Fold these 2 entries.
Entry 1:
Amino acid sequence: MILSLVILTITILFNFYRVVKGPSSVDRVQALDAIGINLIAGTAIFSVYLDTHAFFELILLIGILSFIGTIAFARFIERGVVIERKR
Amino acid sequence: MKPKPNDVILHTVTKLAAVIIFTFSIDLFWAGHHFPGGGFIGGLTTAAGIVLLYLSFDIERIQTNLPIDYKKMAALGVLISVATGMGGMIYGDNFLEQAFGYFDLPVFGETELATAVLFDIGVAFAVIGTAITIITSISEDEL
């Protein structure tokens, strides 16, 4: 379990490199979404390690916020505004 | 004139995901007494669902279908919180004093009812109103 947590941490570091270095903003958004997925996996493994179910709602919450953030970035890249007044 | 963008997938996913997010926020709100959750995080999750609706559709359509003045909602939430906090002072206790008891309800069996839920409703209203007001006023940059 510790080994998988270490591997997830290394993956998040590689994704962070892509966030900083990324040639275009699409790469950065995809790397941020991948960081969110890795955080979910890390939380799940951590709750197995601690033998508790207190973090399950946290997993859902990270998923929802990562989803909304990705959609907001996609709208900003596509249209230039995040929330439109009239379509 | 820009061509009209086609976002059928986003609208379909939003109609499904918004229901899940609102249900999860209500679950977080009710779990708040002995488990992680409560008024603040329940209100924030509800605000996240409303922001998802705003992102997927536009402001005017949400305002016609969900006609809530969020500034008044924030003020009402603070009013509810303060009023229920002062409820303990009527019986000679401190401010924000709470009471709970065990009742035998028909369907649920023996349940614990606490007055802290009323305070949490006010907190949730204040959080929803503040978050949505901030986000919609930030988004209006060119008006």
Note: The interface with chain A takes residues 5, 10, 17, 21, 24, 27-28, 31, 35-37, 41, 45, 48, 51-52, 54-61, 135-136, 139-140, 143 of chain B (CB under 8 Å).
Entry 2:
Amino acid sequence: MQEGAADPGLYDYVSYRGRTPFAWPGGKKAAVWVSPNLEFYELDPPANPHRKSWAKPHPDVVGYSHRDHANRVSHWRMADVMTKYGFPGSVSLSVALCQHHPRVVEDANQRGWEFFSHGIYNTRYSYGMDEAQERRIIEDSIRTVRDATGQTIKGWLAPALTHTPRTLDLIAEYGLTYTCDLYHDDQPMPVNTASGRLISMPYSLEVNDHYGFFVYNMSPRDYADTLIRQYERLAAEPSGTVMCIPLHSYLIGQPHRIGPFEGVLRHIAADDRAWITRSGDIADHWIANVGDAA
Amino acid sequence: MSLDPAYLEYPRRREGYDHDLYTWSPMRERPRVAWPEGKPLAVWPVVSLEWFPITPCDTPFRAPGHMQTAYPDYRHYTSREYGSRVGVYRLLDAFAKAGAKASFATNAAIAERYPSLIADVIAAGHEIIAHSTDMNGTIASGLPEDEERALIARSLDALEKATGTRPRGWHSIARSQSFATPRLLAEAGVAYCCDWVNDELPYVMTTEAGELINIPLNHELSDRQIITVQQHSADSYVEQMLDAAHWLTAEAAREGGGRMLPLQLTPYIMALPYRIGSLEALLTKLAERPDTWFATGADILDVWGAAHG
């Protein structure tokens, strides 16, 4: 990006009108990917001068233990529902989870899920890092995920969505192909970087379960209805859209929410317009068949 | 610009947790718990009995539900009192009608100020657990340890004096603890706390003063969260609880063992005239389900402890 410029120059303006429709594999209209955030939050993390971690003095019992519910109870509850309807996960991973709870990571890997990095911990922020420090967390992410799962990460979602002006350039330099940190489009798009090649992968804050339940205060059934509306619209528009369902099992896997959510997956799985897939597969297909053809 | 090098060091990056309060285990792999009569779902109502001084204290923090206007805040002082005068009796009647037993998380001040209420709760067969001194009795890091120890002792002593029984359970205001709280509770002889929301079955916390059981009281399912914070209707609350009951029962059948559905109720929230009917309908529906076991925290602890102790 152009550091300090009013327009950071992340990408070129391309209006939605006039784009050439394209089909996803199998002639599908909308690529649907589910993104479980598999995270580890520290009970007593060091302070980052630019952002507070917990809202309360440590230990923030509710903040910490709510998120810990994921790694004891709700990961499996959410994952079983996804597997039942044929949805693989594309995991936004706090890579230290590979050390803390390797069996959670192993469970996701065995289900055929993809991993990309969401930083080391969701309580360690990139704000204020120098280039060498940022390189260390990228290298740590690549190495840790490879050692734990055999996979080479292709994507990045900044830890707790904290960036530096050089993050996108660096991940492109390390060979990652997509970022989930830009929300300007419903289709993959090229991102301007100093070197390498990077695309923006449509993630979503708006239909993220965290926004649904804690920003918009939706009931479980309202959130399920929101996801179905989002899907129906994206599948009805000219072909080549992407719908991401970003999840946190400690939210969606609560007992009052998982039932309505199961209905969403049943609905999408029964519709023949959806390419139910992983973010890396979307990136690979788009780069090879759409981006290169443009 | 760069960060302190320590920010990229992770001394507790290891298998298991970054603390020693409890150990990791996935719920579905633990020994199965069997509730009485083979019922798959323990429904655990927890009622907060709270007294808010009209002179709020912000150290270490102001409790949720506390005074909000400039002094004197008659509107919140009296609205909370409504819960202890009127609302709680609607709850007691609703529990009686459904045949449900509950745990009443009670401020010491309630026992000291309103002994007849405590007598009515006890007479109905409910459990009293400790819930600090009054709503100025919040706990967090920064509260000196000797003050926290004294606060815990005062809370337990007052309830024991009023009821003749020392409470086995503890619920911190806003579930907020310091690093010392589990140890201080174990030291004070408390058998269980219900502050950590990371699980759906009881589990063991280990402290230097011995074990403490945590019975998770899901804050996401509380009336405060759903009705006051998320601003859903009482009917939506009921629908959410029934969806949860349905899911948990099916999960218990699939995976074996029992599940828990905690219902955390606040008299000044759920027992208002326009909401109580919804709760009564929920309790009736739960009571009609053959898979419901209404239980107090102590009941859950005894059954779980017999199998896991």
Note: Strands of chain B lie at 41-49, 103-106, 127-130, 169-170, 192-193, 203-207, 210-214, 259-265, 292-294.
